[in-house]
Design goal:
36% of the residues lie in helices and 26% in strands. The strands form 8 sheets. The chain has a 4-stranded mixed sheet. A 4-stranded antiparallel sheet has the order 12-18-20-19, sandwiched between helices. It is of the alpha+beta class. It contains 21 helices and 24 strands.
């Protein structure tokens, strides 16, 4: 029973140091991630109660007593599926010994249940304690609706007007056809096909790849599916997958609506787990000479003040005794580096799980999945080729077989070239975060194009289509000249057919461009030296 064996570590883990209250930090000023759910809130009533911080110190209390105490602490209706417990061979009076200080109630509940191959789910407005087998058999499917209209619109890349004009999506239509298409350009010679806001297919493709096992979705033969109708996404999936979807959409929505700040959000990671992960980067000095492994772990836990536990069963299966001698002398190295030196040679690893740093075997860590979903703000880092960043991450971070295209469980997607959505192990996410930090610390070289000064006089040409040329000239002279400052009021305009050659300052050219753009954002009069434009002529004075 590999799952049971994998899950047994929490119950039998030995804590070295109880997690103390996290130090006070500055208030988080990030935009609040609001749920985009508009359908039944299948577990919303329970989430806040499950997040309540509690402390417990139990020695050989019965399972029934432990569940009742948690029910009272969280004011939660919890019932036990006696048939499922009987099938798993777990009696109600199973002794539970556990200590925890100021961690979420759901973490204590998971720590108590997982070692017994039990889990909990929300059903009929009640928390039900049952087995993993029964939960899977029930399917535990719920239907939830998500309103993704605004998010989809925000993720839609704005096309470069000049590039759109040159694309295959610019077609000549008569006025009536253009009216039917919903686009009447006053200064362009054709009607442009404007696609639906991106996002909807690309967004759900990414979400399906990042949430739940592949076999949970219909395209892989599973029960879960999604349909998007007029910007509303109707999703039928398990409660766990729905929670993942809800978190992704909420955090992505908050990220899109904020200024680029390079943040990284790991879904479901609690503040205390972030603190534990931060301790892995603390610099420490160690000197271990033939010290037993159990003492080494205890000293490391005490040094960084973290709740560090070890998986006794996993160590036994790997043939690693607790008195395994450790010899290591290192100075000014991170806890992460020290743990790697101590654990790697023993086929052990350390993972953050249920508010603790847990030392277990690499086999158990893999069986547990140890996967997290992370959202990276990479605005300003990607440039014109977002696939280049994805290719670098897949090739350089983690072994190739850890990624989906090589049969692994990890996956990666980039949304609108600005936000990276990754499902991977904690260790590989750490590597990706380091790569992104390095890129952010070294901004790209500026383009080799001199931007004129505001008072520099230039000649640029504009093509007027459909509008009366004299009216456009009058508009420029009437609206732009009064806006010019002292000394830059000279605007020389010469007409050649529908071509206008204009000589004035660069500041005035920007005003002309802004004025004409109001007539039609997809116009063909864009000038090459002006923001966001390509392909027009510019002549120095």
């Amino acid at each position: 029973m590999p799952l049971l064996r994998a899950l047994l570590f929490v119950h039998l883990c030995t804590p070295f140091a109880l997690a103390q209250e996290a130090p006070r930090v500055a208030a988080d000023t990030r935009p609040v991630a609001k749920s985009l759910r508009v359908g039944p809130a299948f577990d919303a009533a329970f989430r806040q109660k499950l997040d309540k911080q509690i402390s417990v110190e139990w020695t050989d209390v019965t399972l029934l007593d432990a569940i009742e105490r948690l029910s009272d602490m969280g004011d939660l209706p919890i019932v036990i599926d006696d048939v499922a417990l009987e099938e798993e061979g777990v009696p109600r009076d199973e002794p539970i010994t556990h200590r925890a200080k100021k961690i979420p109630l759901h973490s204590v509940l998971s720590r108590v249940l997982e070692p017994l191959n039990l889990t909990y789910l929300c059903r009929a407005e009640t928390m039900v304690v049952t087995s993993f087998v029964v939960a899977e058999e029930l399917g535990n499917l719920v239907s939830v609706t998500y309103d993704i209209r605004e998010l989809s619109k925000s993720l839609t890349p704005q096309p470069d007007p000049a590039a759109v004009l040159k694309s295959e999506r610019a077609y000549p239509f008569d006025s009536a056809a253009r009216q039917r298409m919903g686009f009447c350009g006053g200064t362009v010679s054709g009607c442009l096909y404007v696609p639906e806001p991106v996002g909807q297919e690309a967004l759900w493709d990414a979400i399906i790849r990042q949430t739940g096992p592949p076999e949970a979705w219909a395209d892989q033969g599973g029960p879960g599916d999604v349909a998007v109708v007029r910007g509303l996404a109707f999703v039928r999936q398990t409660q766990q997958v729905q929670r993942e979807i809800d978190h992704i959409l909420a955090e992505l929505s908050a990220m899109v609506g904020s200024e680029p700040d390079g943040r990284v959000v790991r879904l479901f990671e609690t503040p205390n787990e972030r603190r534990i992960r931060a301790t892995l980067d603390e610099k420490i000095d160690v000197r271990f000479v033939d010290e037993p492994l159990v003492d080494v772990l205890a000293k490391l836990a005490d040094t960084v003040d973290v709740d560090l536990r070890y998986d006794r069963i996993a160590l036994e299966e790997e043939g690693v005794p607790l008195d395994e001698p450790v010899n290591l002398v290192l100075g000014d190295k991170t806890l992460r580096t020290v743990l790697q030196h101590v654990l790697n040679r023993l086929n052990l690893t350390a993972i953050v799980r249920h508010e603790s740093l847990v030392v277990t075997s690499t086999v158990v860590a893999e069986e547990l999945g140890n996967l997290q979903i992370a959202l990276f703000d990479v605005r300003g880092l990607v440039g014109d080729d977002p696939d280049q960043l994805i290719d670098a991450i897949v090739r350089l971070d983690g072994p190739p077989e850890s990624w989906a295209d090589q049969g692994g469980a990890g996956d990666i997607a980039i949304l609108a070239g600005r936000f990276l959505l990754v499902r991977q192990t904690q260790a590989i996410l750490d590597e990706i975060e380091t790569m992104v930090d390095v890129l952010r610390a070294r901004p790209p070289l500026p383009r080799k194009r001199d931007v004129p000064k505001d008072d520099e006089r230039l000649m640029l040409d504009y093509t007027v289509v459909e509008h009366d040329v004299d009216e456009v000239v009058d508009l420029i002279e009437t609206m732009v000249v009064p806006e010019s400052g002292p000394g830059d009021t000279r605007i020389v305009i010469r007409k050649v057919g529908r071509q206008l050659f204009v000589r004035t300052t660069y500041a005035n050219h920007r005003r002309i461009h802004a004025l004409l753009s109001k007539l039609n954002p997809y116009s063909s009069f864009n000038a090459g030296l002006l923001p966001g434009n390509v392909g027009a002529s510019g002549f120095g004075d």
